[in-house]
Amino acid sequence: MMPTAAAALNCTPDSVNNSAGLSFLWLVFPLLFFLAWLYIRRRSGAFYISPDHPLMREAAQKAHASIGTLRVLHEQFPNDISLRFRDPTDTEAWGLLEKIDATGFTAIPASNSTSGLTSPESVVLPLDCILDWQLILPDGSVRGGFIAQAEIRIRDRKGRKDTVELEKMRGRFIDR
Fold first, then answer.
1. Percent of the chain's residues with pLDDT above 70
2. Is the dihedral of CA 19, 24, 27, 28 positive or negative?
3. Are 117 and 93 in contact (CB under 8 A)?
4. Portion of the chain with pLDDT greater than 90, in percent
């Protein structure tokens, strides 16, 4: 007996149902995986905020406008002020303020994989490189921290959960 065209192409009703089932699974599993990833990401603290966001630019302006306050606080707390700044490689970095004067500042960069700085040696940069500064006082209140405040406001507007660090600082800011 000669095979039929359907049998030769393996297009019997059973094989058609199996291939349709597999095609369905190939569509559904990636979709379910993507939705699970999206749910987990939304519930976690991971959240990108563009440095060009209006509140982030406003925060940097407030940090620059408060450099006089930064100088006074540095005299009282010389080893406790952290800075967010642009390093020589034009990468955003964190570090501790070592010295500040009328023309610039010296900072000790934190070991940070996102920074282009590879050694803990001090860097001397102009004041324009300061993006933000922050001091946590002994009573737990926070001076500066303008970018952290902006991040909290943006997260609130987007319905996003604070990171652990932001949650600790929420409501403790003196400078607004």
1. 72
2. negative
3. yes
4. 25
